[in-house]
Amino acid sequence: MNVLEEEQTAFEIGVVVPKRDLKEEDKDSDCVEVLVDEFRNLGLVVERVHGVVDEFIKLAAPLETLGRAAAELHIKKRTPIGMDLEFEWEEVDAFERQPDGSLFSWCERFRCYRHIIYGIINKSQSSVTLRLDSKEFKWEVGEYLLQKLESERIVKEVFPLHDEIKRKKLLQTWALHWWDFTNQPIDEIYSYFGTKIAIYFAFLGMYTRWLLFPAAFGLILHMFDFGSLQLLVLPIFFISIILWAIMFSQFWKRKNNALLARWKIRYPIRADLGYRQGMEWNSSQSIEIAKKWGTDKTKEREMFQRIEWFGRLMRFRNDAIIIFSIICLQLPFELAYAHIYEVIGSDIMKIGLTTIYLFAIQFFTQIGGKISVKLIKYENNENTEKKADSLVYKVFGLYFMQSYIGVFYHALLHRNFSTLRKVLIQRLLVSQVLENLLENTLPYLKYSYKKYRVRSKKKREKGSSTGKIQFASRVEKEYLKPSYSASIGMELEDGLFDDFLEVALQFGMIMMFACAFPLAFAFATLNNITEIRADALKLLAMLRRPTPRFSTTIGAWLNIFQ
């Protein structure tokens, strides 16, 4: 085997533990010291940073350490002959590298890190006594150390760290590089954030580029008076928009497959960061059935069919609950808003009413999303990806109603195109401005509030203090930043749910009402160009580095767009 030059290791994982004053004689039994020693014994590079209130353990893994963990996880990687084989460290030269030259992608490295740090187990013949200050507990034989410390609330959190060199490079070449408009370094985004986020930005960039054609056509229709030819030009515009949407959908599928081929990813893949909840459920069900029915294949098949149909009935029941709630609870509220909007004469009062309405529906929809998450727990989905798709369909139904019912009310009941155009302008402008404002200000406000709480706690511990408490370490600043989470919770979805939802609702608005307001495509194009850079800046500067989630497509969102 040719000897590989070891890649430069960067600290990619942070572990948060309480800050304490440790005496020399207590080091052998101190649980944090034991944890750090175990990390080093596994080949990890450890750096300890003392913050204002907490202590932070930064972890990096040499290439060999990651390679041996990947071999234990049986991770499959692409070979030069096009086959995906289980990785073996001794045959490392036989596997292809990522577009940036690294051996493992960020998703694969994160899986390896979790396998290493959560795999620390007590292999001795007796339990080990661990202490933290005055607290004492036992680390039993066969028990995992990190999970034990998390249950004892000693390890507060384990989270990914930003790589400063790569982060600053992406800030310069992506987030702050406005002159490229829709061009983005997709391979670098994939290497840094993982597959799911890279696919989102690839989709958003392609969608924005394709919007340039209908935006230019809509501007021409708005600026020039075609006179008697207007009845001919408008149908041409409508038909071209439908063809544009169909072609965009098909070309995106080709683009998606090309990206997966470039990133050496099999298609489709049913993996989920190594957890495979769906596969675990199926295997446990198989064991239970085998215990109950023995080796009778007929009864076993009947039992499997019964479980499958029960899962379908549960999905049908949950969908019925969501639809019934939309019709009985949300529809009257939306119609009441639309009617009041039509009755009010003042434009200022209409804008104020729309603003209040947009804030109110955000609250109502979050409640509906949390209810949907609870309902999905009772469905028999194959894996977490299927659960996430089911959640997307349910929550999008709520957002579809609150986004479009008022516009349909004006279009179908009153048939007043001037009022309909005003509603569309307010939705496209007020809604997009409010959402972008909230997206970029809320993380900063949360970060500032957490810093204020930490300073207040430190001052209470030290008594009256006149000096200002400074946060010197970057890892502590990252820990205080909010995570990239969805508004409906992060159990099944991350912050991409809200970003995709915003794009999908915009797409529906401009497609369904293009005939009333052709200029909507121009508004959408300008918003998306801003959205690309704003989302990039949010991920790189205002939030923690997101936990990588594996996904080879945009999932249920493609069906929603179609």
UniProtKB/TrEMBL annotation:
Gene Ontology cellular-component annotations: membrane
Cell location: Membrane
Broad class of the protein's primary localization: membrane
Keyword tags: Membrane, Transmembrane, Transmembrane helix
UniProt-recorded Gene Ontology molecular function terms: chloride channel activity
TM region(s), chain numbering: 197-220, 232-252, 320-339, 351-371, 391-412, 503-524
Pfam families noted in UniProt: Anoctamin
Location of the Anoctamin transmembrane domain: 189-562
Domain of life: Eukaryota
InterPro entries referenced in this protein's UniProt entry, alphabetically: Anoctamin, Anoctamin_TM
Keyword Membrane: yes
Membrane topology annotation: Multi-pass membrane protein
UniProt protein name: Anoctamin-like protein At1g73020 isoform X5
Annotated organism of origin: Prunus avium (Cherry)
Organism classification: Eukaryota, Viridiplantae, Streptophyta, Embryophyta, Tracheophyta
